[in-house]
Amino acid sequence: MKIKIADKLGFCFGVKRAVDITENELNKDGDLYIKGQLIHNNEEINRLESIGLKSIDGFDIKNKKVLIRSHGTSKSEIDLLVKNNNEVVDATCKYVKRLLDIIYEHYNNNYNIIIIGDNKHPEVIASNGWCENSGFIIDSDDDIFKLSNYFNENKNNAKNKYIVVSQTTLDEEKFISYTNKIKELFKKSYGSEYILENLLIFNTICSATKERIESGIKLAKEVDIVILIGGKHSSNTKKLYDAIKKNAKNIIHIEKKSDLLMTNLKIYDIIGVTASASTPFWVINEIVDYIKSLDDAE
Ligand code: F3S
Hints:
With 298 residues, the chain is α/β, with parallel strands linked by helices.
């Protein structure tokens, strides 16, 4: 039995940085609080909670040290934390920060904001919080249909400039397809001569998800089964799973070593291992060691 590991797997830059910041703060005096999951990986969350990270439901707290996760948060929540004398430890990923800054700057310069992404995802919710929740969110084709009305309604207002941004983990093809549709609808509402200065498109996708997908597909073509490690509730793990599944003979999605115990891996000659951007290396190593131990046990 041979094991192949994907070239690109596990923690992306932003998640690693957020975990490093968290550990560093936990080594100092005082409690550290977080709203929501730091990352979408239960194993890592359990570990960080076991060394002191405390969960809160909302930001209506005072005089505490509060961590902002890599997905970022809204401006009003940061303002509330500061007003209530909390110490803010910002672990927002630099790629997410770029997205939030683009939104904030253009919103303050009288642009309408169009965000392509999952309207329930924390990053999209945080992004919308930098334009006072006025963003038009495109999550599906249905939203594209509503965009004509949105353009036409705004035509009667003074605010006729737009920017388009995307969730950092959006699929590139989806971004191209939706931005083409947005341009078409814009031209229909405003005329083609108006488009260049008044519809600005920013590709705010980060490369981490794409790299893991490409590497996972390459791996899938070389092995008999792919073991994909990642949180069951993680959207980037789901995207990785869907892309690899189309190219793999077999695939299993697991979160931790114990999820593999009932699977007979010995029937496969070559086993591939990959992991999403929110999966820590200690979880990956534990699973790889387990697979190797099956071989030794023969
Ligand atoms: Fe940042 Fe991209 Fe990871 S936005 S958190 S490096 S998936």
